[in-house]
Specification:
Mean pLDDT: 93
CATH architecture of the largest domain: Alpha-Beta Barrel
Number of strands: 17
Structural class: alpha/beta
Shape: globular
Radius of gyration: 21 Å
Helix content: 25-40%
Low-confidence stretches: 1-23
Largest sheet: 8 strands, mixed
Distance between the termini: 39 Å
Oligomer: single chain
């Protein structure tokens, strides 16, 4: 099941419905109106001034000019001077793998998953795709996250991913919960077993972590996984690093790359294959930055927005134990160059961070940092927001419900004290977070 492009359709819907007035309704009872804010809808279109967003239950009913009539009995929340945008989504996270200074599969519990999911909500992240390190209780969490009264971000999962014996993902990182098939037949059988749980994606680790692992996943194995997953109408996302691996995976019709190509510049052969097979790209720039940036002690490390995202002990871990990786700066530079090339070529780029995979990838904060790195790569702030919202809704297969701010979409809304189209860092100036048409408690 391949994701569908609905960005244009969303823009058309906004154009057709954005000035619909609720003045003809007999009563505003049951309506909540967020009144008079700037609005960034997530499609990449321009900021709109002095707009009302009309909410009924968990959905946006209409988007109108603030001068339009307001029905009696509607609940009105004045937001003059604020900016409204969709909540962020992250199409590459790992839930439960870290807890304080501990990491690995032993930390993956329902309680720890929920703790981290609530942190995501505090940081305005309204949907996450957890890629390959989950245990089976994730499916109940996913079901609960879809309820109208949920205070969780929407949870999607790849369940247990597929790695390699003596290869990625490293057992030394505590990733012992993944499948590691040795033959194509075994891989097909394991995919069929996983498919019975109805994951949203299948995750495969293909590369060798910068030549640090003994083996890479063979084409025979990943071909079998992709074919079997597609027979169950489940898309496949690949952990990659190298251009040549990406080309081979594209030939096998993988659905998404879960990391950047970092060894070489992407070329027209890969771009053509990605266009032909409708392959998405999730660059995870903040992953590469995390390998060196904390040694530099940037000013944002002292700010509350970062500090409050840290588990106990992590601040001291950065000071005493963290070591930078010498090649990471070059990896980030190449990753930023490649994401711009692909974005300009019309490839659907999403926002993911690999947050939660280890101690240095800070959930909630990383998603905002990724926006900044995308802008540093050359995207405009509005383009980066589109990547994090409408594009991700397409990649995650939920564009019918979560594709930005438009009539009929979920009322998952980030209210900001400043306009991020002027400075992408303003996404960090969070005034309130609304999920399913209601404000969540923020501590």
């Amino acid at each position: 099941m391949r994701f569908k492009h609905s960005i244009l359709c969303t823009a058309i819907l906004l154009g057709a419905c954005s000035h619909k007035s609720v003045s003809g309704l007999p009563s505003g009872e049951g309506l909540t109106i967020l009144k008079g804010a700037k609005v960034i809808d997530g499609t990449g279109g321009p900021v709109r001034e002095n707009i009302n967003i009309v909410i009924r239950e968990d959905r946006i009913e209409s988007i109108q000019d603030a001068k339009d009539p307001i029905p009696a009995k509607a609940k009105i929340i004045e937001l003059d001077g604020k900016t409204i945008m969709p909540t962020l989504m992250s199409s590459h996270v790992h839930l439960g793998m870290t807890n304080g200074l501990a990491s690995g599969s032993k930390q993956v519990t329902e309680q720890n998953d929920l703790r981290q999911l609530y942190r995501f909500t505090q940081y305005g992240v309204g949907g996450v795709l957890s890629l390959g390190t989950d245990l089976d209780f994730i499916y109940q969490i996913r079901m609960n996250s879809q309820k109208k009264d949920s205070a969780l971000p929407l949870v999607l999962t790849a369940g247990r991913g597929f790695g390699v014996d003596d290869g990625a993902p490293p057992l030394g990182m505590g990733m012992d919960q993944v499948y590691r098939p040795r033959t194509a037949a075994q891989a097909r059988k394991q995919v069929a077993e996983l498919a019975a749980l109805k994951p949203n994606y299948v995750k495969i680790w293909v590369d060798d972590f910068g030549h640090t692992m003994k083996k890479k996943m063979s084409p025979e194995i990943y071909r079998a996984i992709i074919q079997e997953a597609h027979s169950h109408k489940i898309p496949v996302v690949a952990h990659v690093h190298y251009l040549e691996d990406a080309k081979l995976l594209a030939q096998e019709k993988v659905d998404a790359f879960g990391h950047s190509i970092r060894d070489k510049e992407v070329d027209m052969e890969l771009i053509s294959l990605m266009k032909l097979h409708n392959i998405a790209y999730i660059p995870t720039l903040s992953l590469d930055e995390a390998f060196f940036v904390y040694a530099e002690k940037p000013a944002w490390m002292r700010e509350p927005f970062f500090q409050k995202a840290l588990d106990p002990g992590i601040d001291q871990w950065f000071k005493k134990t963290y070591k930078s990786k010498s090649s990471a700066r070059d990896d980030l530079k190449m990753a930023q160059k490649n994401v711009m090339t692909l974005f300009k070529s019309g490839i659907v780029v999403g926002l993911g961070t690999d947050s939660g995979a280890n101690l240095m990838r800070i959930q909630g904060f990383a998603e905002h940092r990724e926006l900044k790195l995308l802008v540093d790569a050359g995207l405009t702030p509005l383009e980066a927001i589109r990547v994090a919202t409408v594009n991700n809704a397409n990649i995650m297969g939920i564009a019918d419900t979560y594709a930005g701010l438009a009539p009929g979409m979920k009322a998952n809304i980030l209210i900001l004290d400043a306009d991020p189209s002027e400075d992408i860092m303003n996404t960090q100036k969070i005034n309130a977070v609304w999920l399913n048409g209601r404000p969540i408690e923020r501590r």
